[in-house]
Design brief:
This protein is an all-alpha fold. Helix content is about 80%, strand content about 0%.
Length: about 80
C-alpha cells in the first residue's frame, strides 16, 4: 500500500469516527492537530480540497452537537412527564 492511500485511509477513518461516540474525541483531536494537514499533503490534496474537508468536518461536528442537544432535551422532557 502506498503512502498516499494510507494517508487517504487515515482521513476517511477519522471522518467515520466522528459518528462513533467512543472514537469521536480521538477523531476531533486528529482534525485539530497537524496530523490532518500532514495526511492531506501526503494524499496530494489541494488547498481547496483541504478547505472542503475542514468545512465538512465542522458541519459534522455541529450536527452531532445539535443531535446530542436534541436527544438530551427529549430525554429531559420525558422525565418531566
Amino acid at each position: 500500500m502506498g503512502i498516499k492511500k494510507l494517508a487517504e485511509g487515515i482521513i476517511l477513518q477519522s471522518i467515520e469516527d466522528l459518528w462513533d461516540t467512543s472514537e469521536r474525541g480521538t477523531s476531533e483531536q486528529f482534525f485539530d492537530s497537524d496530523g490532518v494537514s500532514i495526511c492531506a499533503e501526503l494524499a496530494d490534496m489541494s488547498l481547496y480540497d483541504e478547505v472542503k474537508l475542514f468545512n465538512m468536518v465542522q458541519d459534522i461536528l455541529k450536527n452531532n452537537t445539535l443531535e446530542r442537544s436534541y436527544q438530551e432535551a427529549i430525554g429531559q422532557e420525558k422525565t418531566l412527564h
